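Journal club prep — side note

Before the paper discussion, L.F. wants everyone to see what a predicted structure for a comparable chain looks like in C-alpha cell form. Sequence:
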Amino acid sequence: MTKKKEVDPRAYSRLVVDGVKQAPSRAMLRAVGFQDADFAKPQVGIASTWANLTPCNMHIAELAREAAAGVDAGGGKSVLFNTITVSDGISMGSPGMRYSLVSREIIADSIEAVVGAEGFDGLVAIGGCDKNMPGCAMAMARLNRPAVFVYGGTIRPGARRRDIVAVYEAVGAHAAGKLSDAELQEIERTAIPGPGSCAGMYTANTMASAIEALGLSLPGSSAQEAVSEDKRTDCRRAGEAVVRLLQQGIRPRDILTPRAFENAITVTIALGGSTNAVLHLLAIAHAARVRLTLDDFTRIGKRVPVLADLRPSGRYLMSELVAIGGIQPLMRMLLEAGLLQGDCLTVTGRTLAENLENTGMYLAGQDIVRPLSSPLKKDSHLVVLYGNVAPEGAVAKITGKEGLTFSGRARVFDGEERATQAILEGAVRAGDVVVIRNEGPKGGPGMREMLSPTGAIMGRGLGDKVALITDGRFSGGSHGFVVGHISPEAAVGGPIGLLRTGDRITIDALKREIRVDLPAAELRRRRAKWKPRRPFAAAGVLAKYAKLVGSASTGAVTEPPATPRANH
C-alpha cells in the first residue's frame, strides 16, 4: 500500500511568520492588515496585472479583489500584489514593441521574486494581455507551489462587430484610397468599446484557451467576457480552489505533464489559434522542465483539424463563441474523438475527463465550431517549416484560404518600419515575398510582432497575392500567407540575413519547406562576407535581454536549459 504523502499547506509561510525569531516579520504584516488568526493560515499571493494603460487589463484590480475574497472565504489569507503589463496593441508598429516579449520574462521573474521573497504558500495569477498569460504560467511552473491562473476575459465587439484588427486593416485600406479620413476616424473611435482582451482568436484568447487546456485554469475561465458576472465568479472560485490545492498538495508540475501540453496544442489547433502559442508553450514547458519541441506541433497537428471559424482568418468573435458555450463543448468533442488526454490532472483536483463529464454539446444550428466530420481544415494551420532559409525551423499560419504554396521574388527589408512604409506606398506588388529581418529575439531585440505590415497588406487587398516572412513574429491578429520565427535569426548569421532582393523564395506548406533558390556555394559566399549589425541597445533591459535570450525555435527564453523531467 502506497503511503499517503504528507501535506503542509503552510510549508513556506511558516518559515516567514512562525516563532520568536520572526516577530519582526509579523510586526510588518500587522501594519498591512494581518490579525492574530491570519498567521496560522496558508498565505496566497494574488498576482494582479492591473494597469490603466490598456483595455485588456484596466478591470483586473476588481477581479483580483474577487480572487482575494475567494481565498479568504476558503480559509487562506490573501495578499495582493502587482506586476507589470505592456500593451501590444498600443506599441505595435513602433520601437516600443521591442519591449513586448521582454515583458513576458519580466512578469515571470517578478512573480517568482515576490512569491519567493514573501513566502507565499500558493498563488492566484490574473492576466489579460498577451504576455501576462505565459508570464504567469512560467512563474507558476518555476515556483511549483499550488496555483491557479485566471484569464481577465475577452472584450465585447465594437460597432459593426469591429475589433482592433479592423483598425489596422483600415490603415491599409486608407492608404489604398478605399477609406476616407472620416471613415478611418469613425472606425478608430468605435472599434474598442471597453475592458477586455482583443476580440478574436488572437494571442490573448489563444493563450487563455491553451492554459485552460493545460489544466491551470478552472473550466470555462478562458471563454468569459471581461465585464461579466461569470468572470467575477470565476475569480472567487479560483481563490477557493487554490486553498483546496494547498490542502491536497497538488502543484503545477503535477499538472504540467507532457500529455497536458499535447492537450494545449490540440485545443490551440482546433481553435485556429495564434502562432504565438508555439513560442509561449515552448517557454512554459521549459519552465516546467518538460521536453517540448517544434516537431511535437507537427506530430500533433497531423491528426488535429481546425474546427473554429474565428477571426482573424474566420468570421466570428470570441464573445460569439462564449455565447454558445465557450471551449468546453469543443474539448468534450475532442475528448470523445480520442484527441485529448482525459487522464490529465487539473486545478480542480480532478482529471480533464472528469471535468467534462457534465458538459453539453453545442446546440444544433450554430456554425462557429464545425463538427469533426466537416472541419475547416483537416490538419493544423500551424505549420512548422524547415529548409535552407530556416534550418532550425519557422512557424507559418496557413489556414488554406491563402493557398498552400507560394513562390515569388524577395523584397528584403531590414526592420519593420521600412517594410510597412513600402507596403503603404504601393512599392510591394503581387508576387512579392516580403522579407523582414533583424527583428528576431536578439536582433530586434524582442522579436516584434508584424501586425502593421500584415494589416497594411490585407488593407491594400494583397492578402492572397503577397507572402511575408520574418525572423520576428506575428500578432494573433495577423493573417495571410505569413511565416515567422525563422531560425537561426539574421542577427546570429542565419540564412535570412543573407537574402537579397530578387532572390526567388518558395514556401510549401505541403512539403513543410521554406527555401531560397540558390546553390549552397552562393550561400557560403554570402555568409563569408556577412557582418553582424550594431546592436540596437547598448544598455538597459533590451541589451540584457539580447545577451541572454535563446532561439525562437526553443521558446525565446532567457533561462539556461534545465534537465527535462521524465515523461509521465
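L.F.'s comment for the group: The chain has two domains: 14-156+194-355, 382-536. Keep this in mind when we get to the figures.
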